[in-house]
Amino acid sequence: MKRTMFAVIAVLMVLSLVLTGCQQEEETLKIGILVPLSGEVKTFGESTRNGAMLAFEAAIADGLDIEIVVADSKCDAQEGANAANKLIFEDGVSMILGPVCSGAAIPVSEIAQANDVLMLTATATNPSVTINEDGSNKDMIFRACFLDPFQGTVVAKLAIDDLGAQTCAILYDMGDDYVKGLAEYIQSSFTDLGGEVLVYEAYTSTDTDFSAILGKVAAADPDVIFIPDYYDKVNLIAAQLVEKGIEKPLIGCDGWDSAELNTELISEGYFSNHYSPADERAIVQDFIANYEAAYGTQPDALATLGYDAANMLIQAIKEADSTDATAIRDALAAEEFEGVSGNITFDANGDPIKSAAVVQIQDGVISFYKFVAP
């Protein structure tokens, strides 16, 4: 009798383990979207989230078993780290889409790497997001956007080759990893191409009066002015350039891409970006139509990158046929992906090989200028 009872108990235990294993296999995959939804560049976060959700919601409707958890990074290193820890240790996500800003993405990448969480930032362009200080690769970290060294070269060549500039001024925020790094790449590229940097001046994120810096710009009289910063700071500086009567072409970066960029302050300007709505490919035009139907506005580059990043994760999940973050990582690394922002493959560091779009502002009107391949 006792043997029979023990046998029954053993069978029940085995069944319990089998059922538990089945439940774990069928467990819903949780993905965190970590973007700035408050603060000075919250429009970046909103666009990235909206683009990502457009892709994720379509995948869920098609039967993909995923759950999305959204958190606010505030485009801040500490806030981003706090939000990442909550996503990982409280919400139980195994993948993070984001953060948007490099300053937040760098510390979050370190947390994700240490905890075997797959991270794909749609927009953070600083090389340190995917590379450790010792030069080694963070193998759980990827990005959907091009890097700042490439972006710096694109705008420097634009100034010299297309605009005939021989001299420049570079104004940047010393406390922002993205802005400071991009300024350094522009300076290096511009001088390597034979140009001369007459003014290389820093400010802080809290500065609102740029009179002293702009006085140096006026005295130096450069051919072009680089402002590799976010749209909100560009608006402030551009307004004061107008007040001082300094009329030079302004050149910037993907941080300019926002509906809140005051283009009326810019008589001639250019900035590097990740896509153009003028791209006639069907994948681009279909995305624009679907985004406008969902959100009532044309998608910007951040929305586009959010959409591409989400679809890259979706494709990797399907190809891995697993909820294991490492298996999905391996599938992502091997992807050949056709995105709205271009065709993407990854190098050994998890960085994409793709082209950049250059956008022109002429008398306040934005238009597509050209594509630049790596």
Question: Can you characterise this structure?
Answer:
With 374 residues, this protein is α/β, with parallel strands linked by helices. Helices cover 45% and strands 20% of the residues. It contains eleven helices and 15 strands. The strands form three sheets. The chain has a seven-stranded mixed beta sheet, sandwiched between helices. Strands 2-1-3-4-5 form a five-stranded parallel beta sheet, with helices on both faces. Helix 2 runs parallel beside helix 10 and helix 5 crosses helix 6. The longest helix has 24 residues, at 2-25. It is globular, with a radius of gyration of 23 Å.
Q: Can you lay out the helices and strands and say which pair or pack?
A:
Layout: H1 2-25, E1 29-35, H2 42-61, E2 66-72, H3 77-89, E3 95-97, H4 102-114, E4 118-121, E5 141-143, H5 148-162, E6 167-173, H6 177-192, E7 196-203, H7 211-220, E8 224-226, H8 231-243, E9 250-252, E10 268-273, H9 282-295, H10 301-320, H11 325-333, E11 337-339, E12 342-346, E13 352-353, E14 356-362, E15 365-372
Parallel strand pairs: 1-2, 1-3, 3-4, 4-5, 6-7, 6-8, 8-9, 9-10
Antiparallel strand pairs: 10-14, 11-12, 12-13, 14-15
Summary tags:
374 residues, single chain, five-stranded parallel beta sheet, disordered N terminus, alpha/beta, 11 helices, seven-stranded mixed beta sheet
Largest sheet: 7 strands, mixed
Q: Strand share of the residues?
A: 15-25%
Structural class: alpha/beta
Task: Return Rg in Å.
Answer: 23 Å
Average pLDDT rating:
92
Number of helices: 11
The main sheet orders its strands as 7-6-8-9-10-14-15
The number of strands is 15
